[in-house]
Structures
1.
Amino acid sequence: MNFSPVGNKLLQDAVEQLSSLPGIGKKSALRFALYLLKQPVENVERFGNSIVSMRREIKYCTECNMISDGPKCSVCADQRRDHRTICVVESLRDVLSIEATGEYRGVYHVLGGVISPMDGIGPADLPIDALCRRVEGARVDEVILALSTGMEGETTSFYLYKVLSPMNVKITTIARGVAFGDDLEYTDQLTLGKSIANRQIFSPEI
Amino acid sequence: MNFSPVGNKLLQDAVEQLSSLPGIGKKSALRFALYLLKQPVENVERFGNSIVSMRREIKYCTECNMISDGPKCSVCADQRRDHRTICVVESLRDVLSIEATGEYRGVYHVLGGVISPMDGIGPADLPIDALCRRVEGARVDEVILALSTGMEGETTSFYLYKVLSPMNVKITTIARGVAFGDDLEYTDQLTLGKSIANRQIFSPEI
């Protein structure tokens, strides 16, 4: 959509900024801008300020690299959690997904990315040293690798395995297989093949 | 998604604010927030400021009620446009859509809404008086009603018709019919019926 005929500098700037959000085009951005124009000034100021102060003031946990209000995130600061189990994930989003299941009581280590030579991201760009220090320093029983299964994720998992294996720590990875509710017919070959190869003892649960 | 386990106040605030945008849920808002967290501080400040200053500083054209940088919008200020034809639309978005066609050289009148008793919006809440003053004051030949065809849009069109008809001005409405490229088979009955009733002389264009 071309704005120039009714060129309004302020609107145009705001639309440009809003359309920088991932997955948002000019049309949605315009919709957002017109919505914001209809809101009371205080609300729009709160909107803008909350974003800017998030960016300015957010900290990263010195332990696990997760975003945090203080020096330690709420997971690492929680003494009821199992600090001997560390789950390595790519991003905060993965942490939120795992936390939502309620199945995990250990702590995390957020890499913030994966090794990706194409994007110029090497092992040194990720907080892998920090992970090693955690494993060496504290008594850690198990490191769970919960990275994605793409080429880069697997490269990273392999690298971590190589680095961690001399450290006398159990290295596991999350179970892959046919999702609950999925039809075998529509499951990709790789997943189905692995799920048969890695079959488990049947345990009926009520 | 529940944030509480990794409750980060700053992130939570920003996600809440971003999810207030139309059509954006918590999940997309989180995606936006994590994206913004990865951007340089200056960029995020520019993002926030552009939105807040848009809301604070934007003006409305004293003539046609369109948003504007100054007292007159760029359409009303443009002397090459036909000021004797006024197209009445509901919102700026309609103006942008019509401008994008390049078919219209007249000016606009942006109502900013339609008469909607359910939402407590009466004729007095819309700049209809201003439209009447424009028609009475200047030499206006034609008023084009380009409002939506829903109940409220039609009520508003009818109200405008009643108010404007004593004023010796031609009142028209945009043509409705089967869209170019549409199959008759899939066109709704009302549109197809009207498009036959309002058929036009065939004029072959090369």
2.
Amino acid sequence: MIGIDWGSSGFRAYRIASDGAVLERRVAASGIASLTPTDYAAVLQQQIGDWLQAEPEAAVLLSGMVGSRQGWREAAYAECPVGPGDLADKLCPVELGDGRIAHIVPGLSCRNAEGIPDVMRGEETQIFGLDLAGDASICLPGTHSKHVQLRAGRIVGFATAMTGEVFALLKNHGLIAAMLEPETGADLDTAAFEAGLALSGRPGGLLHHIFSVRTRRLFNELSGTAATHYLSGILIGHELRVTAWAGRVVIVGTGVLAMRYRKAFAFLGMDADVAPEDAAAAGLYRLGQLAARRTP
Amino acid sequence: MIGIDWGSSGFRAYRIASDGAVLERRVAASGIASLTPTDYAAVLQQQIGDWLQAEPEAAVLLSGMVGSRQGWREAAYAECPVGPGDLADKLCPVELGDGRIAHIVPGLSCRNAEGIPDVMRGEETQIFGLDLAGDASICLPGTHSKHVQLRAGRIVGFATAMTGEVFALLKNHGLIAAMLEPETGADLDTAAFEAGLALSGRPGGLLHHIFSVRTRRLFNELSGTAATHYLSGILIGHELRVTAWAGRVVIVGTGVLAMRYRKAFAFLGMDADVAPEDAAAAGLYRLGQLAARRTP
């Protein structure tokens, strides 16, 4: 089968063997933010035309913002609680061009105790890729971090925190942007990051705490790089203290960001492990298998 | 005397009679963000050259970001606790060009219980313009809102909340920007604003609550205009619940924003009054009077 994780800013394709092994992967910057509905089939041909041709019978499954209102075709949200079988039942077909049909995995919606809705697209597929049968608390860090509650293998509720977006806005457009140095890969200033995490637990609130990035730069208490990691610590600290679920947490993410979240959970005295990578490929495979069993 | 409130984005000049009455005011967009140190004397000549010529003996007093490192000349912060007399003693001279000297009011700094610094420039002058002899809690809403504690007429501590800046970043650059309608003057959607204020007191935290602007738009629960006021309510609610001081609050600000904060305080069950306008002119006059008494 062919699985594609197609988000706002990125495209990841996986050629997956019948036993679930990832045979090949392709990554491109063709996120849905830059596409119109008529572009998708062409982008697929361009990126993985050879795969489609080589395996004309292979199922093609897509997850992520590709199924949003701004994507290829809107796949209505499945309402929590949702298990993998529910999603396999609700796949949304799209035409690849020559009569071939691909399917989009629907996103999830839930309502919290206040009746406020929340949504995800793509993360549900990664979560089901973990193949957790029991209960778990899951954290997917990112532009819009997700904190998810799994009960008996089903997603029963979740909450989004706009941590990554607010970080990017402050870094790129804010009045403190000029005081920050860009981050250079994996080199985390741990002391500054933990100072931010610690501050997030003190009185005054997030809108007050972030101003200290400015004042501590002004008084030369932080370098430009340290200030960036301090800001990251403040924001992630606020997120984890109030949005994360209780209990041992599984972090689903890759590279630097997943490591940073693990460090943050540990600093805050919360247990967390990082899940193996390629959760999206595993989830696409699992949903593909479930859907195949249902199709006569 | 001539008093000037010169901030990052604006310039307000007041011609003030010896009894404190404001005879004339001029407003310009020449904020310090667009100026270099050599520009200031020229801008003054351009904006109020006629006042300077007509009253060659008048004292000229400036407050605000004009005294910052990025301004005309850096006026070192006065450390809290600070009364108006302390500021009058620490005015920082600048040359107007023909041997005439103007003075800049220094900003204030303080450190909170965690040792984190905070700063203000310009607000101190407005606060002393209120001429409050006793104790008070003061709120100055804005891009960087200030919450100030006055004890026996002196500023003993304060905290900044970046409410206005975060609101502007989300409205202008964020992923929810496209879902919001621009605000149209004074017409506040009170129901949406109060829904945001109410949400700010619920679990989940600020980074989670602001995501509901997106989801509630997605589910057509809010119009674009209502969503803007809902976001405003979420942010102001978070600010006031954790950054404002206890006790009756005096709001120092003008127009729509001051009214919105008064509404927010009332909704949250906190007492607040809006101070009379032109607090900056009154503060510049008061500090000018104090300085004149000290000069032999």
